[in-house]
Structure formats: structure tokens, C-alpha cells
Design a protein that fits this description.
This protein is an alpha/beta fold and 198 residues long. It has nine helices and five strands; from the N terminus they run βαβααααββαααβα.
């Protein structure tokens, strides 16, 4: 069985994915893959530099994430252009890792953590979708505290994603992460036992 795990920025997906891994799940991490496909020398990084300019690269040839982030979160057109460059490579590697896990460990749950799962049209790839939910006000506060952004910068990031309510309404399973860690652990345990994974 495989599940897609998603939510919004600063909703606590990494906490939930860690809890699932601790219980025996195998994790495919789309954020990690997204960082790997733009490593120096990769064709994806070359396309980014060609499209957005060589000033998107640092002196050592690696991606200037800060500069690219400022550009794409201020312009939806630029963000869509970046996604058209990066998403095919990310999707291909997600599918490769998922297939490999399913072949090598058919009895284990495979969790694929994809922040933009719905936005990228990937929902049909999974047996079910788990959404890690928090209200927007909690997201905003966590983002500002975690990343040191001001309210405008944090709002830009939130506005680049679907609302948490929209994702929650589409989910097969919702884990509400707005309470205590213990609340979240109880919900993960309930999900694990209901799926017969104990």
C-alpha cells in the first residue's frame, strides 16, 4: 500500500512522516528529491540558469535558493515556469523510489511526502491521501517563527499553495496537527491500527 502525505507549509508534515517511519513505514521525501535534482551539474539546474539567468547560481555553481525564492514567490508566472522545469524530474524520481520500495518491501507501507501533491495533480498516483491540517493562522505564525520571515513574505508562501481547508476537504484521512504532539501521535496511531499496520 502507498499513501500520499501532504499539507501546507509549516503544517507539520515532517513530524507526521517521522512518526510513520518510526512505526515501520518507508518514506519517499519529495522535498529531498527536489533538492537533489538541482545539484550542481544537473540538467535541471542548467535549465534554471538558462531560463532565469546565471545570477540564480552561487559562485560555487550551486543554486541560489534565496534569490530564486524571492523571484518565484513574487510572480506566479515565474513560479509556474520553474515548476515546468523541476516537476517532471521530481515526479520521475518519486515514482522510481516508490516502485523500488514496493518491489523490495511489498508488506510495508510506503509514504510519499509531497508538499504540493494536489497542486501538482499527483493524487491519482496513491491508494489514499493523508492531509496534515492546521488552520492558516497557525501556519502563518509557525512560518514567521521558523523561517524569520515577516508577515508579507509568509503570506506570499501561503498564497502559492492551495488553502488548508481545500486540501482537508479532498483528503481520505486528516491528521489535525494544531494541538499537542501527543494529540498528533494518537491520531497517527489510530490511522496505523485502522489500516491494519500493527
Amino acid at each position: 500500500m502507498n499513501i500520499g502525505l501532504t499539507g501546507g507549509i509549516a503544517s507539520g508534515k515532517s513530524t507526521v512522516s517521522r512518526l510513520l517511519v518510526e512505526r515501520g513505514a518507508l518514506l519517499v521525501d519529495a522535498d529531498k528529491i527536489a533538492r537533489e535534482v538541482v545539484l550542481p551539474g544537473s540538467p535541471v539546474l542548467e535549465q534554471i540558469a538558462m531560463h532565469f539567468g546565471s545570477d540564480m547560481l552561487l559562485e560555487d555553481g550551486s543554486l541560489n535558493r534565496k534569490r530564486l525564492g524571492e523571484l518565484v514567490f513574487a510572480s506566479e508566472t515565474s513560479r509556474k515556469q520553474l515548476e515546468s522545469i523541476t516537476h517532471p524530474a521530481i515526479r520521475q524520481e518519486i515514482q522510481r523510489q516508490t516502485r523500488q520500495y514496493e518491489q523490495e518491501h511489498p508488506e510495508r507501507l510506503v509514504v510519499v511526502d509531497i508538499p504540493l501533491l494536489y497542486e501538482s495533480g499527483l493524487a491519482e498516483l496513491f491508494d489514499s491521501i493523508v492531509v496534515v491540517y492546521v488552520p492558516r493562522s497557525v501556519q502563518l505564525q509557525r512560518l514567521m517563527e521558523r523561517d524569520g520571515w515577516n508577515e508579507k513574505e509568509a503570506e506570499q508562501r501561503l498564497n502559492a499553495q492551495w488553502s488548508m481547508e481545500k486540501k482537508r476537504d479532498l483528503a481520505d484521512i486528516v491528521i489535525d496537527n494544531s494541538g499537542s504532539l501527543q494529540d498528533t501521535i494518537m491520531q497517527v496511531d489510530r490511522f496505523w491500527s485502522e489500516k491494519g499496520l500493527l
